[in-house]
Amino acid sequence: MMRIFIADDEDIIRDGIRNCIEKEQGKFLFAGEAPDGEMALPMMMEIKPDVLITDIRMPFMDGLELARVVRRTMPWMRIVFLSGHDEFEYAQKAVSLHADAYLLKPVDSAQLLATLANVAARIEEEQQQYRQAVRQSRSEQEDDALREHFFNLLLSGGMAAADAVEQGAPWGLSPAARQYLVCILRLPDNRDAFMQARALSARTFDGQQEVICFFRGSRRLVLLLQGEREDAVRERAYEVCQNLRHEIRQFLGWDTLAAIGLPVTRLSALPDSYRTAKETMLRAAACAEGGVFGSTDFASGKTGFDFSAGGALADQLRHAAPEDVPRIVDEYFGNAAEEDMKSVLYRYYLLMDLLVSAARLAAEVQPNSIAAPDDPQAVLAQAATLEGAKVCAAQTLRRLTQLCYRHQNVRYSEEIGRAKTFIRAHYADSGLSLHMVAAEVGFSPNHFSTVFSQETGQTFVEYLTAVRLEAAKELLRTSDARMSDIAFDVGYQEPHYFSYLFKKHVGVSPREYRSRGEVT
Q1: I want to staple 274 with a disulfide (CB 3.0 to 4.6 A). Which of 2, 182, 301, 460 is the partner?
Q2: pLDDT tens, 254-270?
Q3: Number of folded domains that form the chain
Q4: Residue 293, phi then psi, degrees to nearest 5
């Protein structure tokens, strides 16, 4: 069902459109409303409607500016403009923003419903095109095989730069680019997910020359970005990953994890960008099921000890809890080729590497807590079967994660305590942000966000909102200050948005809350 959001500063217009939509139950769903663009934007970020109906002239943020932000951050959304002025300039700007309709006020219900029906038909047509792309992709697999082989060989370092330039040109590889960057998205481990993601990514990136999309195995969707400036390529990588994650969630119904590698300046260095993306994926998978993570997110945050000692395995154990051990062990041994795992010597080397890495990592937390293996014959005996190797690995990693987890909790409790104190002291600052608090405690923003959620059970925004609303309730009970002044005093510059948040979290409006108590 198509979900519709309304942004208009006239109550009577919003009421009329809402009533019209609600009468068409089964066809359209009213998702929310706001009196201006500034208030509408955060609400839509949370609700993610299919269609925005917006007036052009509104206070704070007008409809044209709102549409520009929506086009950049939520590109799937359909936009219908309302205007009380039949001016060519407005219509021209609406066209430039790819508006689906431009309606003059007053809008009668028949005209509105006809417009929404047309928009719904376009969405359905897009979905049919997507389903057709899925069917067509099955017949194109053979043609894609050569392209996949080329890019996989390029990432593995098995191709000379001259050959890469010559062979890659037909598939969009640009030797003239000054920056290259590799991103990885993790997919569910099944054939249907692979085929669906292939079709969806082909549709999403059709015509985008700076993004090359291909697969490495059945669980990794790889994006290769090309550009001129490092900062622009990094920013584009985050934007592309976020948009593709939303498309996957909207059309396929599952979340995915995205990892962004470091940019490089030469085609021959692409394996390095891919390697850093893989390392980021290992680290991110230990602490999240979905999201977008960059390689620098794990480079500058405090950890309390050096996780680099154990390489990729230590990276994965960085945020692991004891209950994560079975999954980590299965993935560790499962990443090896099936044929290799039949060799007892190969299993021995895998197990020995894991045990040595665990001992080195444990020593950084607490010296002599886990001893490195000193009897190769005993390790070889454990590796006689795959099951025996897994049992031995799980026992060691369980001890390690318990040790790391206790150490992490003690350290982070101090840091999170400082963060909470800083928030309570500065909540009245409307510019207070996650980046500011993270800098105060010495964490990178993404690392701080992860640790804060793990330690408190709340996101940073949820905690800050709770602190501000508690302060607002105190002011409502103990003063006769105006609502706009109270909003400003607790960190909100926009009274409408403050009222919206207050009612959402408290259950009543600020005025209703004040009327129930006594002002002293």
Answers
A1: 182
A2: 888 899 999 999 998 99
A3: 4
A4: -125, 135
